[in-house]
Specification:
This protein has 268 residues and is α/β, with parallel strands linked by helices. It has one domain (6-265): Purple Acid Phosphatase, chain A, domain 2. Helix content is 25%, strand content 26%. The protein contains six helices and 13 strands. It has helices at residues 16-34, 54-62, 80-86, 135-146, 162-172, 218-227, and strands at 6-11, 13-14, 38-42, 67-69, 106-110, 116-123, 153-158, 178-182, 192-193, 199-201, 206-209, 240-249, 256-265. Strands 1, 2, 3, 4, 11, 12 and 13 form a seven-stranded mixed beta sheet that branches. It has a six-stranded mixed beta sheet with strand order 5-6-7-8-10-9, covered by helices on one side. Strand 7, helix 5 and strand 8 (178-182) form a beta-alpha-beta unit.
Length: 268
């Protein structure tokens, strides 16, 4: 008998090898303990801390991730361009990039429990490096299409400012099941269910080396702040921690019934 609600795990930005290793360690445990039906992970920094290559994409899928989302680093590794085209139900990039960009910005995938889940990836415009179209208007058109297939819709709002992500949450309330923010790599403590039934968190946090500055070697980052001189960033080599949320969603209505933050250290 199908349960009333389904459990969806959303994993924050995977950063480099430490992030991949942390997800590989934690995901089987989370799926078993939380009875997870579907897994989404942001993977835009999973290869060397910037971008994603096909080999690492396949590795992440092998851990049990169902769909990967991306962000402003999606184009950092050109090898991913054909992969984006060929695996449109496994990986999506921001939907508000111009027409002609490789890949797609949303998809609908059937979860292990037989329920279809719609996933949308959006890119913010404030303090971001790409000139993209309005994510709010992009959302409206996509939601209408996904609603023809399912009421369960998850949005990755990849943006720099908290204000733009908070605004997207309120704008989406009642339209989608969950809006989670990514990009800033720091987990926020504002998880909530909005008045019309949409779960929200400003940032999932990072799945990567916790003893770092947003996943990068802290000494190199501090040196740049002290000197204003450019230097090459490197992924920190400390053990990774998985950050994310588990959301309970009513598959009939698409309304969220609960949201819980997760922080799981590698080996913890």
């Amino acid at each position: 008998m199908q349960s009333k609600s389904m459990n969806i795990l959303c994993i924050g930005d995977i950063v480099g090898r430490p992030g991949r290793e942390a997800v590989a360690y934690a995901l089987p445990k989370i799926k078993k303990e939380q009875r997870i039906d579907f897994v989404i992970a942001n993977a835009e920094n999973a290869s060397g801390g910037s971008g994603l290559i096909p080999k690492n994409a396949e590795e992440i899928l092998s851990f049990g991730v169902d769909v990967m989302t991306m962000g402003d680093h999606v184009w950092d590794k050109p090898d991913i361009f054909p992969y984006l085209q060929e695996h449109q139900q496994k990986i999506i990039r921001p939907a508000n990039f111009p027409d002609g960009a490789p890949g797609v910005g949303w998809t609908v995938v059937t979860a292990a429990n037989g329920i279809k889940v719609g996933i949308i990836n959006l890119l913010g415009r404030t303090f971001m490096r790409y000139n993209v179209s309005c994510p709010f208007r992009a959302l409206e058109g996509i939601v209408a299409q996904i609603k023809e297939h399912t009421a369960v819709i998850i949005v990755d709002m990849h943006a720099e400012t908290t204000s733009e992500k908070v605004a997207m949450g309120h704008f989406s309330d009642g339209k989608v099941s969950l809006v989670f923010g990514t990009h800033t790599h720091i987990q926020t403590a504002d998880e909530k269910i909005l008045p019309q039934g949409t779960a929200y968190i400003t940032d999932l946090g990072m799945s990567g080396p916790y003893d770092s500055v947003i996943g990068q070697d802290k000494n190199k980052i501090i040196t740049r702040f002290l000197t204003s001189m450019p230097n090459k960033f490197e992924v920190a080599q400390s053990p990774g921690t998985v950050h994310g949320v588990v959301v309970q969603v009513d598959p009939k209505t698409g309304r969220a019934e609960g949201i819980t933050r997760l922080q799981i250290p590698h080996g913890g």
